Amino acid sequence: MTSLTRRGGNLTQRHKAGADGGDEEENFSPDVEEVDEEFDQDSSKEKRLTLMEEVLLLGLKDKEGYTSFWNDCISSGLRGCMLIELGLKGRIELEKTGMRRRSLLNRKVLCKSDTPTGDVLLDEALKLIKDTSNMETTQGWIELLSGETWNPAKLRFQLRNVRERLAKNLVEKGVLTTEKQNFLLFDMTTHPLTDTTAKQRLIKRVQDGMLSRWPNNPHRIEKRLLSLVYLAHSSDVLENAFAPLSDEDYELAMKRVRELLDLDPDAQIGKPGVNDVMWAVVAAFIK
Fold first, then answer.
1. CB-based contact 224:51 (threshold 8 Å)
2. pLDDT 10s per residue in the chain (287 long)?
3. 168 with 50: CB under 8 angstroms?
4. Were 79 and a residue from 3, 129, 145, 260 both cysteine, which residue would form a disulfide, CB within 3.0 to 4.6 Å?
5. Cα angle: 141, vertex 101, 51; to 5 degrees
6. Pairing of strands 179-182, 187-190
7. Which residues face 180 on adjacent strands?
8. 138-146 vs 276-286: helix axis angle to the nearest 10?
């Protein structure tokens, strides 16, 4: 994990009013998705990244071009990203439970539409969900797609070489490049960072979401950003986005992340405008 470093700027003082409410409601646009669309327009379409690519990019060492060998969380985190992406794109949903609502962790995932998304990994996951006769929960699908099963018959659900395939996507988008590195006993393909602007934009987006644009209400955070924070934390790469902050801003950002982690997904799902798959994936990681 990247060590904590200090920098001269301090976002906390500039955004004190928004830290605990104050005048924040006047300054924060209620239409958060429009704000994020403006953000996306700052970059070319080729640089628009999926949640999986963003989490991987946060975890990659810039010069070395690979994730930490000690990180055993990112594999399942990337599968969670896939389910959220499919949920946000309207391809999957949770089963309806009638009058007696069950916990998010107990509700099965259903294929809502098999229309291809245009992303190979997402479409592979969608096909597996659509073709299986045994419905699974979000937690079950995360485990199956990660290959974490003792049932040999279910190994066919595992998506293989996900990190490498995502890295190749980022190479095609001009964010990474491809190199070979020698590790004494073996050679490994690595993908060092070439477009530092793309990663800095991603880091700034996460930092601003927890600092200058913090709305004191998780439902006013754009769904993709909220998903990114949760899944980056579950993948053990979120701290990489906060490492450049001053100590004060770092503590404030982590305090707000802890507030998000303390939320009850089952309580959040009853609020208007939420995505049930997103909160079910969150529940699978934080409970």
1. yes
2. 433 333 444 444 444 444 444 333 333 333 333 334 333 444 444 468 999 999 999 999 999 988 988 888 999 999 999 999 999 999 999 998 764 568 999 999 999 999 999 999 999 999 999 998 778 999 999 999 999 888 888 889 999 999 999 999 999 999 999 998 877 677 888 999 999 999 999 999 999 999 999 998 888 999 999 999 999 999 999 999 999 999 999 999 999 999 999 999 999 988 888 999 999 999 999 97
3. no
4. 145
5. 35
6. antiparallel
7. 189
8. 70
| Pairwise CA distance, residues 274 & 91, whole Å | 15
Angle, vertex CA 219, rays to CA 282 and CA 247, nearest 5:
75
Tokens read off for 274: 């939420």
- The number of residues making up the chain comes to 287
Helix (H, G, I), strand (E, B) or coil at 101: coil
Domains and CATH numbers, the chain: 11-178+185-286 (1.10.3630.10)
Check: CB of residue 75 under 8 Å from CB of residue 146: yes
- Beta bridge partners, 188, equal 181
CA distances from 21 to 204, 212, 259 (A): 22, 12, 15
Backbone angles phi, psi at 185, to 5 degrees: -90, -15
Q: Is 107 helix (H, G, I), strand (E, B) or coil?
A: coil
Closest by CA position to 254, among listed 194, 210, 223, 286:
210
